[in-house]
Amino acid sequence: MDSDERALKIREKFPVHLKNMFQLMGNDEKKATGSASLFMNLETTLAKASRKREDTRDPLQNYHKMTVAELQQMTPAFDWNTFFTECGLQDVDTVIVGQPEVLKALNTMLEKNSMDMWKDYLRYHLVRGLASYLDDNTYKETFSFFSTTLRGVTEPKPRWKRVTDQTNSALGELIGQVYVDEFLPKGTKEKLTEIGNAIKDVYADRIKNLDWMSDVTKEKALVKLSTIVMKVGYPDKWKDMSSLTVDRSSYARNVMNANEWAMRYMVNKFGNPVRRDEWEMYPQTYNAYYNPSNNEIVVPGCNIMVPGYERVLADDAILYSIIGGSTFGHEITHGFDDQGSKYDEKGNLNNWWTSEDSARFYAKTAMIVQQYGEYNPVDSLRINGELTQGENIADLGGIIMGYEAFKKTKQYIDKQVIAGLTPDQRFFLGYALAWMINERPESLAAQVKSDEHSPAKYRVIGPLSNMPEFHETFSIKEGDFMRRSDSLRVKIW
Ligand SMILES: [Zn+2]
Description:
CATH architecture of the largest domain: 3-Layer(aba) Sandwich
Bound molecules: zinc ion
Radius of gyration: 25 Å
Structural class: mainly alpha
Strand order of the largest sheet: 3-5-4
């Protein structure tokens, strides 16, 4: 367990928060203190049985296929068939378990602890999950621990903003339809497709020319690359949410209805063929993803929006760095990072690398683990190079591909100067622009410990430190902070 000062303080405050919550649920102080202490023991036991975040990265190590009978035998204290039936899942015969040791620990805990304790445990999680939609005291108590203590946020957002956020997260598929019609600049889908294809082309060239990969593996990498499905802008088919009830009963009830709808939607997929047309993000969500199980990248339309360029498209230097680099380039690289490289072109877990190529690849990823492990964003905490390697590999691959693709645009070839900046300067500044963010030390500390993404600042410093084109553009000399020396410079793709 972490023993730095921040972690100790958080572990001191958590039981106080638990006690307050149990009191808010109607228990007297003595009973609430008892429940809090049992709860803390239980969570600590579960946490100790769980793998470290970085140990959950390897998809092969976290894939244990077993029959329900085997699962039942491993955890006799838990009635799985009743659980599945209650969830609405009929005739489940096989499951994939990520961490069998956690279920074994849970089994021991089920045998050892009283039913009353489990009721308290579940009651807390139910109320905490809904706290944002309940009375002010419950909301303030959870805000004080999860936002102030854990992330350093002192003031809640105004209520109307919180409700808007919640509505967007529950009904985003409906709001997205309005958003696409009213807010996306004309030509968004076409431009995203153009940039996505340009990045794919550059990638293919780079793979062909790699000096460390054998021809057999290259061939397979090229097949995987060419079969990546690109979903851009917004879904061709929207989810049908007509069975969801939204009424004036209560805020919490409506949120629960939406959660139930989402749960039923997932359960209904069980036993049916994989749906490859689905989106896991809304068009108005400023993010993107690569899904290795479908070998697809999904880039919501709003990624094309750049501050200062509302409703019109920015110039290619900016779009090729943000959309080409941070988005398409980044997501495609996930198909070839420490995790994605273990899935084949159809999205099946299947190692397609020769062992020599794997060894050479991991020697390179070890260098990026080392690079980020040197960064110290807050207190004495360093970035966890193992945990963040997939994202860091994707950032580095992304910016290189974005730059290569930008070099083929008219703006680059014509050396157009805009607002006094050369194409190169605009490209790198555009890249940094997308990562501008204010962060509190508490939030940085929480991110460094639990997030597989490096803090934003290092998502700029890290990849650019490895890029000679960046050094040349801004005359960065050997020995400067943002220039890795040649022997340490990471180059994978
Ligand atoms: Zn990523």
